[in-house]
Amino acid sequence: MAFNRNTPYNDLPILPPKAVVESPNILKKVVTSSRALAELKGIGQSIPNQRILIDSILLQEARSSSEIENVITSNDALFKAFSAETNKIDPATKEVLRYRQAIWDGYKKLEKRSLLTTNLFISLYQTVKETQASIRNTPGTKIANTKTGEIIYTPPEGEKNIRDKLKNLEEYIHSSDGIDPLIKMAIIHYQFEAIHPFSDGNGRTGRIINILYLVHNNLLELPVLYLSKYIIEYKTDYYKYLRSVTEKDNWEQWIIFMLDAIEKTAIYTKDKIYAIRNLLDITLEKARKKLPPHMYSKELIELLFYQPYTKVQFLVDAGIVKRQTAAEYLQALETNGILKSSKLGRERLYLNLQLYKLLSR
User: Fold this and answer.
1) What is the mean pLDDT of residues 270-279?
2) Is the pTM here over 0.85, yes or no?
3) Contact criterion met (CB below 8 Å) for 323 and 75
4) Which band of pLDDT confidence, cut at 50, 70 and 90, is reported for residue 346?
5) Mean pLDDT for the stretch of residues 298-323
6) What is d(CA 225, CA 105) in angstroms, rounded to the nearest whole number?
7) Cα 225 from Cα 350, distance rounded (Å)
């Protein structure tokens, strides 16, 4: 039956695709994408304390992925909200923080049980959208052009039908079919978007699954690929190639697009990690020269790189010093030009200005 964008796509083909997904052009692109991803994994492992990457880069991915869905917040609002105890957080920033939490929760669940399942997908969605809702079970979901209102796609309907398609997706994810994992990631992402199992938040949930799939296949150590940056830059192409698979069974362009996204963002993320590592080394040396010996420690300076804003409680929680001494340490770091303080409610936050500038570029 021919595809009709105005009727539920209940005949969405199951996986694997019948089309050729290992064409010469695709395999050529796999080589460069795999190399870039391997280099990113290697540089990530060279960071002395990998928590430095988790919150700094993960928050950027969360912000960009949410921006694709027109959930907009600033870097400053996001970093402050992540560090401060305040109720004055706007809804968009809260939603981005939930996205970051969903990635981290998914990663921890994979560590315990290395399976990507429908239940995991539901859990990610519920965290992102702060809801108890599950698989769509009412008709009427349609994807439309936000400007013109034109129907672009009508996803499958019926909870059993959706769950059956997700079960097929699970089986495909874990099948040993010899297809390169990066090619499979592109196929998996399309299929999840086409199934569109939830009433909202499908795009973000799907992009989290991408990163977790790479971790699941040991292609990333940590979920720190900044993939959404590329999708924002080429948002029109992203949706065009998605539709091209649905309407024309054109897998090659879609897979090459996603492979290019992996390659470009792996290079970008790797360069960002290099820059963080270099800035850490410079800051360690500056602090060693300027701070009194009893204050300076590698653990203290590394703590300033977990996220741009820090505060007294972070030093106390890390077991570096007690509360009164922590305040003295942070004030000394500000006096020596390493941090800059500001008040947010009752709290005083200390900004690692150079790290903030680096992450905001």
Assistant:
1) 91
2) yes
3) no
4) confident
5) 93
6) 16
7) 27
* 3-class secondary structure per residue, 73-88: CCHHHHHHHHHCCCCC
Distances in Å between the Cα of 69 and the Cα atoms of 40, 98, 99, 100, 345 are 27, 14, 12, 15, 30
Give the type of residue at 107: Y
Write out the DSSP string of 262-283.
Answer: HHHHHHHHHHHHHHHHHHHHHH
Q: How far is CA 84 from the centre of its chain?
A: 22
Helix (H, G, I), strand (E, B), or coil: what is residue 138?
coil
pLDDT digits (tens, 9 = 90+) for 181-206: 999 999 999 999 999 999 999 999 99
Q: E-assigned strands of the chain?
A: 143-144, 151-153, 309-310, 340-344, 347-351
Q: Which long-range contacts (CB under 8 A, 24 or more apart) does 161-165 make?
A: 161/10, 162/135, 162/136, 162/195, 162/197, 163/118, 163/135, 165/12, 165/14, 165/191, 165/195
Residues 6+ apart with CB under 8 A from 238: 231, 257
Is residue 347 left, alpha or beta, with left meaning phi > 0 and alpha meaning psi from -120 to 50? beta
Query: Measuring CA to CA, how many Å separate 345 from each of 226, 265, 348?
Result: 32, 37, 8
Rounded Cα distance between 250 and 246, Å, is 8
Please name every residue paired with 343 in a beta bridge, in sequence order, or none if there are none. Answer: 348
Q: How far apart are CA 273 and CA 251, in angstroms?
A: 32
Q: Which domains does the chain have, with CATH numbers?
A: 24-271 (1.10.3290.10), 291-360 (1.10.10.10)
Model pLDDT, residue 87? 64
Rounded Cα gap, residues 320 and 298, in angstroms: 10
DSSP string, 108-132: HHHHHS----HHHHHHHHHHHHT--
Specify the 3-state DSSP secondary structure of 306.
Answer: coil
User: CA–CA separation, 328 vs 21, rounded Å?
Assistant: 60
Percent of the chain at pLDDT > 70 equals 99
User: Per-residue confidence at 1, pLDDT binned at 50, 70, 90?
Assistant: low
